[in-house]
Fold this sequence. Notes:
The longest helix is centred in the N-terminal third of the chain and has 27 residues, at 2-28. The chain is 69% helix and 5% strand. By secondary structure, the chain is mainly α. Strands 1-2 form a two-stranded parallel ribbon.
Amino acid sequence: MEYVWIALGAVAGANARYVIGRAIGDRYGVSFPYGTFVINISGALIIGFLLTLLTEVLVADPRWRLLLVVGSSLEVHPIAALPEETLAAGGRVAILNKGPTPYDLLAAVKLEDNAADVLGAVAKELA
């Protein structure tokens, strides 16, 4: 069932990212990735606010974390423009994905695994 929550977040996130990124690019140009910048900053703030609200104030079902965090992250890594922009700027890319991606050969790190399993193990280690 985790996959359904992740998929719902990915679909919503990818579409929102595309529409907002396109609108910002049309208005301010694409010489600097303003769309990616605005989306990532606002997305981090919104996710932080919603996760705090849902998990500490309302105490909602923990599957909302999968929908909001992992689901929205899936459209960023590796599908969105961020890996390309990172590589073009001289940065390094890490990929966590089941199956091949267009950036596998360019990634500094490639983990071939389930995001829910890996991120769950990381969260457990950090707790």
